[in-house]
Recover the amino acids of this structure.
């Protein structure tokens, strides 16, 4: 037994040193001057693996369509899997940046993995663009802008504004009640911004109430809301909670229109209960605009399924990176960064993109309605 | 205070739900002096079995409830046999840890893809919900069903405990294991029976809960379990009417707090009241104030 374990240790040491040598070789490989390496970080395994698959599919589609070229440069794709884990994201980002020496990064998908990666990318001066991380901290942390970090999606508070604007202007509603999760930054952000914009636009918020994550019985607050009979009930939570609240609200005789955010976008939403409700999202495959139609057709032809919002945003992110490289026509990180920041009215699938000073796109949101048990495109609303 | 009557009905519905779970806690505690932390998870299994019953196996609701009760009785007996009986004469803390283990096992085992899966499921109700306006109050058929079920269960339990041989055996065991054994009571069977009945109640509660709050997932038992346990302690653990009383008080406090004070304070105030009551009456509202036998 003793001898065996000794041999085991020796074997491990040999294997590990071999691994070091091999990976070291990878780092030594010199990229020629006309190649730009694009790293993609996405969760390809783990709890949100479909998000990662959509992302990588879309990035590949965009690169293929561009023939792996941007300006005078050839693009080389390097993929990494972060398993939707913040630590793993740091590990793969370190590998991509210091070993593979990528010039630009696309990713990651969720805010919790993107925030630590964005810090590292910014310090290492690698231009990074995330398709879908909506948390404000991705581009601005502690009041400081991370100059090399951008995103292709709108940020959380924006959806609240759009929801309020839509309720006031399109639906002509005057009163609204808001119910949100007191322990979730996403829903708090949406709720506060909805309230502020709704009131600023002349509407009246009758109730602004919180619940906690584990609550399943909303009868007390909903009875109170029912008595005030608001025109709109704003529910900025994820699909499971919203389904539950929606059902109980109808039982208490609340006839208000339900409005929500991108957290509703799931096949597991209770479509029967939420019939007739509206929610803000990044994109809709039903959008009649030619860009969306072309993207949906191309994606379907290559992968055999309708692209979700994650795919659309990853596609946009890749287009934006390619455009910035082309405009800068240089490998220099600062040149690419400046070109990115100066992007003006760049047409992507999810709208025309111009960056604000925080690296967030100024673009329209898509409004969807649940109709006949399906998500139906209603309108795009500009902020 | 305009909707006071409506809110009291809301609170009653919630309270009676807690009561169905609290009964199992209190029965098991009364007989074996063990806090069965897995009880909330048995409730979850009941909800799932009932859900499969009326959505996928084409059962009527009463049959689905019955199936869930039978399955959970068996589950309760198995849990007792495997996790608690071997530890009956071990220190109390061992059985308590074992109970926590069973609870976590049930939660995470149920989350596996080939069992129930980790997702939230929307329960499509087997019948449409109907509103009645009685004297200006908004009452639903679901509230009526919950109310009637709890009453039937309570009556059944009272009958079982005070009018049958099994009940007599349970009462005897709850006073003293060894004396009961000397008197010819089969202690093991009696304890199994207690778990079976308690788990069946939890299952019925689970199915009703799934119908009233139509969403289920493997971790749904934790919060209701905790609240029901609190209710049982509030009413005096080991005392059956106490569990119902405690549960109704919990339901009312939670509902009235979120209706008239703030929905963010509901748990804080509910548990604050628990602490207050226990400070004044350490054995609960209906608990007898006698020292533990040593």
């Amino acid at each position: 037994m003793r001898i065996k374990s000794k041999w085991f240790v020796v074997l491990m040491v040999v294997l590990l040193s071999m691994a070091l040598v091999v990976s070291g070789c990878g780092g030594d490989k010199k990229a020629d001057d006309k190649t730009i390496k694009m790293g993609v970080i996405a969760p390809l395994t783990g709890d949100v693996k479909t998000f990662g698959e959509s992302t990588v599919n879309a990035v590949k589609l965009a690169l293929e369509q561009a023939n792996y070229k941007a300006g005078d440069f050839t693009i080389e794709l390097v993929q990494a899997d972060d398993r939707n884990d913040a630590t793993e994201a740091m590990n793969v980002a370190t590998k991509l940046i210091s070993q593979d020496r990528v010039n630009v990064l696309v990713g990651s998908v969720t805010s919790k993995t993107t925030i630590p990666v964005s810090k590292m990318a910014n310090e290492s001066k690698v231009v990074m663009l995330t398709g879908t991380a909506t948390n404000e901290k991705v581009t601005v942390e502690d009041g400081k802008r991370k100059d090399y970090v951008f995103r292709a999606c709108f940020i959380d508070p924006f959806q609240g504004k759009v929801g309020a604007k839509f309720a006031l202007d399109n639906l002509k509603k005057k009163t609204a009640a808001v119910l949100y999760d007191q322990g979730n930054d996403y829903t708090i952000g949406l709720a506060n911004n909805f309230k502020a914009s709704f009131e600023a636009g002349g509407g009246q918020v009758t109730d602004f109430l919180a619940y906690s994550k584990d609550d399943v019985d909303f009868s007390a607050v909903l009875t109170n809301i029912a008595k005030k009979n608001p025109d709109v009930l704003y529910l900025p939570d994820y699909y499971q909670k919203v389904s539950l609240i929606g059902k109980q609200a109808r039982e208490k005789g609340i006839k208000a229109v339900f409005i929500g955010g991108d957290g509703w976008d799931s096949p597991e939403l209770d479509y029967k209960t939420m019939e007739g409700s509206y929610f803000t999202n990044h994109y809709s495959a039903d959008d009649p605009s030619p860009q969306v139609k072309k993207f949906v057709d191309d994606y379907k032809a290559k992968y055999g399924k309708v692209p979700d919002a994650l795919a659309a945003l990853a596609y946009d992110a890749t287009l934006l990176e390619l455009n910035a490289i082309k405009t800068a026509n240089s490998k220099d990180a600062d040149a690419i960064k400046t070109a990115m920041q100066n992007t003006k009215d760049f047409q992507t699938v999810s709208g025309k993109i111009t960056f604000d000073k925080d690296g967030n796109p100024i673009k329209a949101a898509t409004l969807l309605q649940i109709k006949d048990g399906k998500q139906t495109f209603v309108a795009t609303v500009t902020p | 205070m305009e909707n006071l009557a409506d809110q009291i009905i809301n609170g009653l519905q919630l309270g009676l739900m807690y009561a169905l779970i609290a009964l199992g806690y209190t029965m098991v505690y009364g007989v074996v002096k063990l806090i069965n932390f897995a009880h909330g998870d048995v409730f979850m299994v009941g909800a799932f079995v009932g859900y499969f019953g009326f959505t996928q196996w084409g059962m009527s609701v009463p049959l689905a409830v019955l199936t869930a009760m039978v399955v959970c009785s068996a589950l309760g007996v198995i849990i007792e046999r495997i996790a608690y009986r071997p530890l009956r004469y071990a220190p109390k803390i061992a059985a308590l840890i074992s109970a926590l283990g069973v609870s976590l096992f049930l939660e995470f085992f149920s989350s596996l893809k080939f069992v129930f899966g980790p997702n939230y499921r929307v329960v499509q109700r087997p019948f449409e919900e109907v509103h009645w306006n009685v004297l200006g109050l908004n009452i639903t058929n679901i509230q009526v069903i919950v109310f009637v079920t709890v009453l039937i269960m309570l009556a059944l339990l009272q009958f079982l405990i005070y009018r049958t041989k099994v009940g007599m055996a349970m009462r005897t065991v709850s006073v003293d294991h060894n004396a009961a054994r000397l008197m010819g009571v089969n202690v093991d069977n009696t304890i199994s029976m207690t778990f079976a009945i308690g788990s069946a109640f939890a299952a019925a509660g689970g199915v009703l809960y799934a119908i009233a709050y139509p969403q289920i997932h493997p971790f749904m038992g934790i919060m209701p379990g905790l609240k029901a346990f609190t209710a049982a302690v509030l009413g005096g653990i080991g005392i059956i009417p106490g569990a119902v009383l405690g549960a109704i008080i919990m339901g009312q406090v939670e509902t009235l707090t979120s209706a008239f004070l703030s929905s963010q304070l509901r748990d804080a105030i509910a548990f604050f009241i628990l602490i207050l009551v226990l400070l004044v009456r350490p054995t609960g509202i209906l608990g007898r104030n006698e020292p533990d036998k040593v």
Remarks:
- Chain B has one domain: 4-232.
- Chain B touches chain A at residues 2-3, 6-7, 10-11, 13-14, 119-120, 122, 124, 129, 131, 138, 140, 213-215, 217, 220, 222-223, 254-259, 263-264, 266-267 (CB under 8 Å).
